[in-house]
Specification:
The complex is a heterodimer of chains A (118) and B (116). Helix content of chain A is 0%, strand content 47%. With 118 residues, chain A is mainly beta. In chain A, strand 5 (43-50) and strand 6 form a beta hairpin. The N and C termini of chain A lie far apart (37 Å). In chain B, strands 2, 5, 6, 10, 11 and 12 form a six-stranded mixed beta sheet that branches. The relative contact order of chain B is 0.34. Helix content of chain B is 0%, strand content 53%. The chains are: A mainly beta (118), B mainly beta (116).
């Protein structure tokens, strides 16, 4: 059973370019989460999505950042006009629909995508 | 809003000894989940252990166990017989229980060093 798959693992962008990070959740998981980890810091929540719906985007910067999780295909985190401060590790995580107690309430993480803005 | 606090930025332990990492949280909810994740130098986030708030019994996973004190809102992680491979950043996390799902809220982490 493949885990959460993120790509690219490493991405270098020049200031002003766009960055697109992709995430395929674990099989059977319908909830996707994006987190950002700045150097030497903890993980900060960005957005929570279900298929075709944004459930909670309270951690997303108001400008330049967007996320989607279409009916078909991976979830995409898009950063427009990148700046040096966007350099960070971006983690995607997934979980099944948590109707029941038990392991379904655990969120599993991908290996992260490292964005470097030069 | 829920908050998670890890008051120990760094901890160290001798190989084969026991270490306890502290975590406190703040919530008005009664039904929730608590987790410890480990982030080794590879930076991957690895689930260590999980606790459901409605269960009074403390969770254990091999050498890892927790001391869950619901009234005190405390959730510490004990690592027994520490191994060199346990060296990592450890994050405590909280998740509210909702049928529609909810996000994880993390503490700032504790960097654990294991000395040979």
């Amino acid at each position: 059973n493949a885990g959460v798959m993120q790509n690219p693992r490493h991405l270098v962008r020049r200031r002003g370019q766009e960055a697109r990070l992709r995430c395929s959740p674990m099989k059977g998981h319908s909830h996707v989460y994006w987190y950002r980890q700045l150097p030497e810091e903890g993980l900060k929540f960005m957005v929570y999505l279900q298929k075709e719906n944004i459930i909670d985007e309270s951690g997303m910067p108001k400008e330049r950042f967007s996320a989607e999780f279409p009916k078909e295909g991976p979830s995409i985190l898009r950063i427009q006009q990148v700046v040096r401060g966007d350099s960070a590790a971006y983690f995607c995580a997934s979980s099944p629909q948590s109707l029941y107690r038990g392991s379904g309430n655990t969120i599993y993480f991908g290996e992260g995508s490292w964005l470097t803005v030069v | 809003a829920q908050t998670v606090t890890q008051s120990q930025p760094e901890m160290s332990v001798q190989e084969a000894e026991t270490v306890t990492l502290s975590c406190t949280y703040d919530t008005s909810e009664s039904d929730y989940y608590l987790f410890w994740y480990k982030q080794p130098p590879s930076r991957q986030m690895i689930l260590v252990i999980r606790q459901e708030a409605y269960k009074q019994q403390n969770a254990t996973e091999n050498r890892f166990s927790v001391n869950f004190q619901k009234a005190a809102k405390s959730f510490s992680l004990k690592i027994s017989d520490s191994q060199l491979g346990d060296a990592a950043m450890y994050f405590c996390a909280y998740r509210r229980r909702e049928t529609s799902g909810s996000r994880l809220t993390f503490g700032e982490g504790t960097q654990l060093t294991v000395n040979p």
